[in-house]
Amino acid sequence: MLTQLSATELRKKLDSRDVSAIEIAQAYLDRIASQDSKLNAFLHVNPELTLDMAESAQEQVDQGTAGPLAGIPVALKDNLNFVGMPTTCASKILGEFMPPFDSHVSKRIREESMVVLGKTNLDEFAMGTSTENSAFGPTLNPWDLERSPGGSSGGSASAVAAEMAPLALGSDTGGSIRQPASLCGIVGFKPTYGRCSRYGLVAFGSSLDQIGPFARNVEDAALCASALTGHDPMDSTSLNLAPIKRSVEGGNVKGKKFGLPKQLFGEGMQDGVLQSVHSAIEQLRKAGAEFVELDLPSIAYGVTTYYIIAPAEASSNLARFDGVRYGLRVDGKGHIETTAKSRALGFGHEVKQRIMIGTYALSAGYYDAYYVKAQQVRGLMQREFNAAFQTVDHILGPTSPVVAFKIGELINDPMALKQLDFCTIPANMGGFPAISLPCGLSEGLPVGLQLMSPNLEDDALLKTAWAVENALDATLRPPVA
Fold it and tell me: How far apart are alpha carbons 472 and 217 in whole angstroms?
């Protein structure tokens, strides 16, 4: 089946003329039609637009002018603007809002002649860790239809794991690419902050958000990242650097020194997760890797620090949704009542909660006690990790403390849900590049292994991740796919 092939394999078939871009696109559209009714990974699909893009890509293939990703399908998280499809952020307040411009990554996708399959489900405005906060219902995990795919980019992760897309894009604010990649048994990569432009991404936490790819293997993730990254003058935080390199071959774990923070191997981690990660460590040790135990005390404060900084930034970013400029409008007596009614009906519980927390943390009398203190802890965490990177090449640990949990299992325990970001938050706090890749199963469900590297070492991270992937040989395929 075409939908079982990686992006790299599909590209080879296009070049050899064994298949056309139109046939590939149609195969994925058929797969979405047959599978998504039970997974709810996609919010919007436009077959006519998809096939038009495939036809254009095929013309380039026939002319011999196609780039390395021409004709390869991709799904977009529905907080990324793409002209021709709605951007809803899985929220009622945006309704069927049609963006008037492309995000930077959407523009790059068009330039590369990739084929957009649709927009994927997410926790509303990317606020959540289970994709249960979507106004359009939860996405399910293809490994077990009673379980969550993680979040907030759960729709993108589920789509790739269920072979409804070879590649998908997500956004990662506190782990929202890596955590769902872990729970769905695929690869999820968060580049260094600033390597991928955020222009046209509906902002959640502006100092934390970063766009990145989901893929079935590291080679595909690097290939996609190379197309998305590079300087963008439309984003003031975009780094003036060359794109991430496509090639990952030649990476080696022999002689690489990995740091193991003891805080990521202790309380709160499921036994099965730790067993899988320790098994992976032993395999890598046999392949010539070295391991050093680290003590990074600031990790213990990561979740509480994040849940001050991120809501504070969200409370500012979401102020633009007022019932006047975008989407849903509920009329009231004057502007204030119209805005209040529109937000009351348009925003879900989690979004309202985070706006309230963020507004409180920024308010007079509490700004120094909460927001400033959180930023000081963030600085401490960055210094601790930077010091650790002076002694090790990469930091390794579990991506998620648990395997996929049942839908509804944690919905009434918000602190338990927030703790699921425990392992991933440090990379966002420091802006470090990080990747999750499968390392085995626990209770028949995927376990993710996370690697982090110093800032701007994205190429080195991807090369090492490719070598780790080959050493572990833990590529997974869900039984229901």
Answer: 12
Q: Which of 6, 20, 77, 190 is catalytic?
A: 77
- The answer to whether 481 and 165 have CB atoms below 8 angstroms apart is no
State yes or no: is 77 an active-site residue: yes
3-class DSSP assignment, residue 371? helix
CB 136 within 8 A of CB 91: no
DSSP secondary structure string for all residues of 53-116: HHHHHHHHHHHT---TTTT-EEEEETTB--TTS---TT-TTTTT---SS--HHHHHHHHTT-EE
> How many CA atoms does the CB half-sphere of 208 hold within 13 Å?
30
- Per DSSP, helices labelled H in 318-424 are 334-346, 349-362, 373-388, 414-418
Question: What is the bridge-based pairing of β-strands 187-190 and 210-215?
Answer: antiparallel
Spatial distance between the Cα atoms of 279 and 306, rounded to a whole number of angstroms: 30
Q: Which among 166, 217, 164, 208 has a CA at the least distance from the CA of 188?
A: 217
Low-confidence ranges of the chain (pLDDT < 70): 480-481
Q: Please tell me whether residue 396 adopts helix, strand or coil conformation.
A: strand
Out of 152, 156, 400, 436, the active site residue is: 152
CA angle 148-430-210, nearest 5°?
Answer: 50
**How big is the CA angle at 57 (ends 51 and 59), to the nearest 5 degrees?**
110
N- to C-terminal Cα distance for the chain?
12
Q: Which of 106, 176, 182, 298 is catalytic?
A: 176
Distance, in Å, from the CA atom of 213 to the CA atom of 357, rounded to the nearest integer, reads: 30
pLDDT at 480: 63
* 389-431 pLDDT per residue, tens: 999 999 999 999 999 999 999 988 888 888 999 999 999 999 9
**Does the reported pTM lie above 0.85?**
yes
Backbone angles phi, psi at 91, to 5 degrees: -125, 145
- For residue 246, give the amino acid letter: R
- Determine the Cα–Cα distance for residues 156 and 147; give it in Å rounded to an integer: 15
Say if CB 93 and CB 48 are below 8 A apart: no
- How many Å apart are CA 401 and CA 390, to the nearest integer? 26
Percent of the chain with pLDDT over 70: 100
